[in-house]
């Protein structure tokens, strides 16, 4: 049943993004930013973790989860280190994913050639 709910919740997040693109005529950058901010707000309100518990990858894979990770890391570090923890927490939580994207992007650029 977890696969069903992951599919439904992940699909609804994607539908929301597509509606932002189509109906509000937002650019892809504005749409992504909006979804990240929505994820951050939901985590700040304590609503995103229960969604992840319910839907699993359906809530932890979409871009809204990035906003959740930012706020979650910032809040955890703020409790330990005060105001400076807000900044360090954001970098600590997201650094592995960003570093992996940079490294794998670089490796891909060495292996593959641009067709342009």
From TrEMBL:
Keywords: Membrane, Transmembrane, Transmembrane helix. The chain crosses the membrane at residues 27-47, 54-71, 83-112. The keyword Membrane applies. It comes from the Bacteria. InterPro entries: Spore_V_AE, SpoVA. This is Stage V sporulation protein AE. The lineage of its organism: Bacteria, Bacillati, Bacillota, Bacilli, Bacillales. The gene is spoVAE.
